[in-house]
């Protein structure tokens, strides 16, 4: 099947489909390795490809032993040819994305039972703009603890007895997972990069979790987390996490009469998707998701009908910055919401307003709902509820925002 010079060559050829790594030898042995990127190799179908076949989007041949020349990107059926005997066929192993199901009402009901059994409802306070839902009062300082509790509560369909959980985060999600694991007795591994904030790592070490430092950035830490045994819990692309975040809405059922316009920040979309799941059951609630203008991965995915990579800029709302995991389900849910965005100046103005008017310390991401309302970017019907999603911000950054 293979030319002799290929069949006997055990060196490896690397490809990227989109930007996710694929590694195979010419003989077909697949190595589950990560070549300077993120998602682990999950075995898909193996097939032969030649020049006559349709192109695969964004396939890049990064290297072939003995090959000299630049990288190739195929956007036409003209395939790059390894410089070995004129061989025109190559074997690739496609990356299969993590399969995540869309959460349903049963997930929300289960999450509400689990979350309400652990957490006290967060307050709703009045302001001249509308109502503020203070997730800043959560024990870890952000709404993320809701999704963590929903994901780590033992029993089907979340964790089976004795099954460990794994996540990657040195931020609000990591702290939330550590807190939930300590409350629920779950076995948890948290992977952070070697460059993670020392203060955040110190907070994680205060919990009874296994902390692993790996890689130079979040992508490398996440890739390592995905290779470890146990159930991986994404900060946003997980049905139980999404349902857990939706329990904010379940609390609002008992706190605020409708109809409502609920405004919340959008990063990976777990919070917005959870609120949308809840709102669709009520019928008198509009959900407005607010992204940082320099990082609009969810809106771009909704517009394109698929996950697309976007350019991500620097933002004080660092909890909202980044691209989406391939196969992420949040844009599918958020098709039923309204999306807008706010600038850096608008976010900082909202942080100052919350401090000056209410004495509230709110991080950049947590202030985005207020920022959108102050900037006149939300059409309001019924009572307005703005979710202040978190308070975790370093003093130097906060002082700079208030200046």
Topology:
Blueprint: H1 4-7, E1 13-17, E2 20-24, E3 43-49, E4 59-63, E5 72-74, E6 90-95, H2 105-116, E7 124-126, E8 131-134, H3 144-152, E9 165-168, H4 172-184, E10 188-192, H5 198-205, E11 210-213, H6 218-227, E12 231-232, H7 239-245, H8 247-255, E13 260-265, H9 270-282, E14 285-292, H10 297-304, H11 330-334, E15 338-342, H12 344-358, H13 368-374, E16 383-388, H14 395-402
Describe this structure in words.
It is a single chain. With 403 residues, the chain is of the alpha/beta class. It has three domains: 92 residues, no CATH class; 205 residues, Rossmann fold (3-Layer(aba) Sandwich); 66 residues, Rossmann fold (3-Layer(aba) Sandwich). Helix content is 32%, strand content 19%. It has 14 helices and 16 strands. It has a six-stranded mixed beta sheet, with helices on both faces. A four-stranded antiparallel beta sheet has the order 2-1-4-5, with no helix packed on it. Strand 13, helix 9 and strand 14 form a beta-alpha-beta unit. Helix 3 packs across helix 4, helix 7 crosses helix 9 and helix 8 packs across helix 9. The longest helix has 15 residues. The chain is globular. The N terminus is likely disordered.
